[in-house]
Amino acid sequence: EDTCGQSKDTTQKTCFAEYAKMRDALNETSENGKYPPVYFSLCGNEEWYGPAGASLGNSWRIAADDDISWSNVLKAIDTEAQYELHQYSGPGAWNDPDMLVANGPHHVFSEQESRFQFSVWSVLTAPLLLSFDVRAISSYNLATYTNRDVIGVDQDKLRRQGTRVSGDNMSLNNGNSATNVWSKLLMDGSRAM
Asked: Which stretches of the chain are assigned E, i.e. beta strand?
């Protein structure tokens, strides 16, 4: 469900009430009343979806569309750290920094930018949704998006989101002066960095 384009006067309470209606309707279609037969993604593009997200859907957008510019990708990463959104993520409920872009309709990321985004999204336990024409994918990006080790980090059974353990905001100076270290605890006790 999408609340993009809502009036600036639209309140959190209004958005949450609308999402709750859809959640309830989906839950009525399930056999056990708990898990609907669809993946329900909230698209509000605000960090304040984090605390309520798991009670309303399976994932919730926490930042602006990332296919507009590389700086939006970096801002989404900063949002995850700044608001400590990891605490709201868990099995069946994920913070969503947006889709993987590569060669999207509004912006073409370099192959290195695409690989960086995919790797960070995996540490963030984010939904790995592709937002580009896969028929036009380069062999480099195909290797990136089919890397079983990176996908394994994203889909680790512990389902714990990684956190920034060192570094500054990535969006300052478009990432040129920021160094980050992110860490994600995995089911076997090891960490993905």
From this structure: 41-42, 59-61, 94-96, 163-167, 180-185, 191-192
Reported residue count of the chain is: 193
Q: Which residues have C-beta within 8 Å of that of residue 170, sequence separation ≥ 6?
A: 74, 75, 77, 78, 178, 180
CA-to-CA distance for 183 and 185, rounded, in angstroms? 7
**Residue 188 is among the residues annotated as catalytic for this protein:** no
Q: In this predicted model, what pLDDT tens digit does every residue of 92-102 receive, in sequence order?
A: 899 999 999 88
Is there a contact between 37 and 29 (Cβ–Cβ < 8 Å)? yes
| Region label for 85, one of left (φ > 0), alpha (ψ between -120 and 50) or beta (otherwise) | alpha
Catalytic: which of 65, 98, 154, 156? 65
For residues 91 and 67, which has the higher predicted lDDT (pLDDT)? 91
Is residue 24 flagged as an active site residue? no
Asked if residue 128 has pLDDT above 90, the reply is yes
